Amino acid sequence: MKAIKIAKTEFKAGLDKLESAYRLYGPVKEKQYYTFKALDKGEKPDLDYTNTRMSAKSLIYPQAEVTFEYSLDKNDDDYAILKEPAKDYAPRAVIGIRPCDADAFAVVRRNFETPEYQDPYWLSNMDATTLVGLACNTPPSATCFCTSAGSGPFNDKNLDVLLVDNGDHFLARVLTEKGENLTRTAGWTTAAENADVVIESGKAASEAAFSTTVHTERLKDQSLIGLYEAEAAIWEKEAFACINCGTCTYACPTCWCFDVQDETYGKSGVRIRNWDSCMFPLFTIHASGHNPRGQKVSRIRQRFMHKLKYYVDKYDKGIQCTGCGRCVRLCPVNIDIRRVCNQMNSYNPESCSCEVTS
Amino acid sequence: MEHMGLEPGRLHFSWISSAESTKFVDVAKKVTEEVKALGSKDKKYVKSKPKVA
Amino acid sequence: MTTYIDKIKEISKRLLRDGKVDMVIGFRKGSLPMMNQPMFARNEGDVDSFVWDSSCGVNLANYVTDRSERIGIVAKGCDSRNLVVHIIENKIKRDQLYIIGVPCTAMIDRHRIAAMVPGEIESIEENTADGTITVKGEGFSETLNKADLLQENCALCMHRNPVIQDEPVADPVPEQSPDDVDRYAKVREVESMSPEEKWAYFDDLFSDCIRCYACRNACPLCYCPTCFVDESKPQWVGKSIDPTDIRTFHFLRAYHCAGRCTDCGACVRSCPMGINVRALTKKLEKDCLEQFDWESGLTLDKRPPLDVFRPDDPEEFIK
Questions:
Q1: Contacts of range C122-130, beta carbons closer than 8 Å, 24 or more positions apart
Q2: Pick from A291, A146, A155, A159: which is nearest to A209 by CA?
Q3: Rounded Cα distance, C112 and C133, in Å
Q4: Would you call C277 helix, strand, or coil by DSSP?
Q5: Is A214 a member of any domain?
Q6: How many domains, in total, are found in chain A?
Q7: What is the Cα–Cα distance from C97 to C72, expressed in whole angstroms?
Q8: Higher per-residue confidence, B48 vs C159
């Protein structure tokens, strides 16, 4: 790991150099809000942003992706054979991703890369991507709670390069081989002395400024059945407002569920993988017609139990959430995961009560 | 449909009873001619393959 | 309008105390500025959490379909019209409902306000006396006229007072009339475009759609057990974000709401991408008014025009 200094003019020039070796992605303002998109030639990412409306998830895991192609023409040699479509895994770089979004990829990797199964599409995209993160000098939003969700404004565990805005220049930590390759290609090679001191003090100042936290310390020890059965105490009230749209799951960088559909047109077709949401009533419908989560309260319970209990128990690496706050900001009826998390954490099955802290 | 941008002249409505076979033939011919005259506009109204990643 | 809350609470508590209803549906304070969360109260203690302000835009009629309880519900003008539609369509019985009528003075649009200030909003205060709203954040405090901050559908609303209610919380407010406000100005703008321009307009409008279905689910009219987009056998519409499928979904959904939509704005309010979903439904509303002289949800006595056949129905488009 080494520290470098990049003057902002050098930064722009470096991005131009990177264009020849990487396809660049970065935050860009569209109408009123920011979004990650592929940068056109010469287009620069807008690093003055707080965070994007939707997460960077779609850069590695597109919302709709063709997984196979097939021909239904009996005269074709490859009739009825599922073929892999041509994909472009040329190197790409995401410039200016926030640590919470980068940490989310590590959370999702636990699901897509296991000893038994590896998702080739997700992994190929991930391997082709270099993540250049941008630290949050101040909490981007009052809804950010990354510091208590296993991430942090300066977290660099899942980045290849971490940039810290320091006025007229960036200080940067080059953390991995991918990061080395990128910074060398961009010509960002000036070493920085005492960078660590500046970065660490910036980190401490930023972390201290976070005004909202969630309590997760008791989640692992809570009885799973106890929480599951707390319908009257927690789930019925939280579930009432929910309209079962897919907003929270689609905006969430740590949500990963998908649906597989075939679409055939005439004599050829494709198999597509689409994001799916456990909030949709038909998410769990069986071929028999039975739906174990046909009721809204079951689905709400499942979502929060999955994120804040099942994932905690299964991997022992904290909650399936990095505190980016998007679900809080975008939920049309203001269902707040911070509130639910605190209720689950403080729930006492004996007295069948929990402290509602907010 | 027109409000959404479908060209006028592509969508036709007609009441035809199963006993009015000649009317059916006439209407079918007329609609086919009129729509052909409008051209295919690069098939932008027809989805043949999903435009996804 | 912020003085309504005392009356809302008083009525709700009385209803629960006297056992007239099993639950009252209202709002509680949200965890973000300009957001409130729908909640239900089953006892007087719960009612203390009720709030009422200009951020109560969610249509509570969405929560009553197919319920078997006796329900008290806080309803604005548009909500009450949707309740009428629900009763006509047999999704709830009139005698199950105790409608607490709220003469509405319009809801504010939080995205519109966010675009008008330089940073993140921390709090807002409604100054009912002079019709302004003070918006505060780090390093700024701006006082804006509420009239400039309204949801688009509220600015065009002609039915602010509930059309059906069991008990009002205040005296009726003055209604706007078609002489003050041209409801269909935006629709006319699109109508005057060429077909290519129209196609491009809607392409751009729906380009951000992520098929989350927040618009459909927030809409009180969309209560089908299985929506047409969720069917697989046969699959009518693709489930991906292909632009043709997105356009088909919105277009067909608008059609299913034709003659029923009350322009409550819940769809736009709930959309995470800020899409003006009302662009199609407003056109259909105009067509219903001009061709059938029909506005939805105003009376329990007449059936909607697409539900009935009259020999004098317009049909000059059928050849």
A1: C122/A142, C122/C33, C123/C33, C124/C33, C124/C34, C126/C1, C126/C2, C126/C53, C126/C54, C128/C1, C128/C2, C128/C3
A2: A146
A3: 13
A4: coil
A5: no
A6: 2
A7: 6
A8: C159
A54 and A113: one domain? yes
How many Å apart are CA A334 and CA C199, to the nearest integer?
Answer: 34
Give, as one character, the DSSP assignment of residue A220.
T
Is residue A308 included in any domain, yes or no?
yes
Range of the domain at A322: 224-346
Contact A245 C226 (CB under 8 A): no
Q: Among all chains, which residue has been given the structure tokens 């709203």?
A: C133
Overall size of chain B counted in residues:
53
ipTM: 0.93
Are A191 and A331 part of one and the same domain? no
Question: What tens digit of pLDDT does each residue of C29-55 get?
Answer: 999 999 999 999 999 999 999 999 999
Return d(Cα A278, Cα A293) in angstroms, integer.
9
Runs of H (alpha helix) within A306-351:
311-315, 326-330, 337-346
Taking CB atoms and an 8 Å cut-off, how many pairs form between chains A and B? 23
Identify which of B3, B15, B50 has the shortest CB distance to residue C240: B50
C169-196 b/e (C-beta count within 10 Å ≥ 16 → b): beeeeeebeeeeeebbebbeebeeeebe
Q: Is residue A351 part of a domain?
A: no
**CB contact A272 to B (< 8 Å):** yes
CA C14 and chain centroid, separation:
27
Structure tokens at A7: 């003057």
Domain parsing of chain C, residue ranges: 4-109+150-307, 110-149
User: Cα torsion at A272, A277, A280, A284 (round to 10°)?
Assistant: 80
d(CA A251, CA A52): 10
Which chains have at least 3 CB atom pairs separated by less than 8 Å from chain A? B, C
| Within-domain flag for A320 | yes
Residue C9: CA atoms inside 13 Å, Cβ hemisphere, count?
A: 15
Q: Are A130 and A91 in contact (CB under 8 A)?
A: yes
Entry pTM:
0.93
Q: Give yes or no for a contact between A162 and A133, defined as CB atoms under 8 angstroms apart.
A: yes
If asked whether residues A11 and A107 sit together in one domain, one would say yes
- Domain shared by A112 and A233, yes or no: no
pLDDT digits (tens, 9 = 90+) for C275-319: 999 999 999 999 999 988 889 999 999 888 878 888 878 777 777
CA distances to C282, C288, C310 from C294, rounded to whole Å, are: 13, 5, 13
Residues of A in contact with B47 (CB under 8 A): 265
